[in-house]
Amino acid sequence: MTTQKLPGADAARHGAGGADLAIMLAAHRAFRRDLARLARTAAAADLSDPARRQSVAAGWELFKHELHLHHTAEDEVIWPALRPRLAHSEHALSVLDAMEEEHSRIDPLLAAVDAAFAGDPEAADWPGERRLADVIDELASTLTGHLAHEEQEGLPLIGVALTAAEWRSAGFRIARRNGLSEGGEMFAWILDGAAGEDTAATLATLPPPVRLLYRTIWKPRYEKTARW
Questions:
Q1: From CA 72, how far away is CA 174, in angstroms rounded?
Q2: What pLDDT score was predicted for residue 45?
Q3: Smallest Cα–Cα separation from 79: which of 154, 28, 169, 3?
Q4: Within the chain, which residues score under 50 in pLDDT?
Q5: What is the pLDDT of residues 60-86, one digit of tens each?
Q6: DSSP secondary structure string for all residues of 203-224
Q7: How far apart are CA 157 and CA 161, in angstroms?
Q8: Cα–chain-centroid distance for residue 111?
Q9: How many alpha carbons lie under 13 Å from residue 134 in its C-beta half-sphere?
Q10: Is pTM, for the whole model, over 0.85?
């Protein structure tokens, strides 16, 4: 049984099914945005300048942190919630296995970029080139490939397996695990430079008091730090 043949897959893929995937898709856009910023940094930034190096480091560290939170939430909350509901579908279970396996490929790539930023000579052996741009390119290729695969086959399974209420419950569980401060930083990061319609769609998933926190506290606090 393929993902496409499971009921509701198309609606879930586009965030229009019972499970509202607006935040998941917004996070994916933010990862792609920061990968582009990272690539531009490797191509043009003067990392010998301490102030420039500090701003790049701030952007890179937050990117890694948000990616860790995102993948941890998927591996420890979202995918485990789907497995019992999809036990009848060998294909669906293979997709979930692939999502977790693809996550495992990312950490070594992050470490390689860290090493290249630090000027670690060992970075020259990974992935076989001597320039920071090469390890960033490998990370970008692998992560964007994973995001596309997840959007095509992984995220639709959420709408297939969970009701809207169950999906909201999973979101609340993730929010409680991360805490209010982490959540505030996440929303400010996700919406950094986002198009107006994307910002509106993301904020619409939040209750009015939380939207007020974003506008009056989280966004201004986020903007105090120079990144990239």
A1: 9
A2: 66
A3: 154
A4: 1-17, 121-124, 126-129
A5: 999 999 999 999 999 999 999 999 999
A6: HTTS-HHHHHHIIIIIHHHHHT
A7: 6
A8: 17
A9: 11
A10: yes
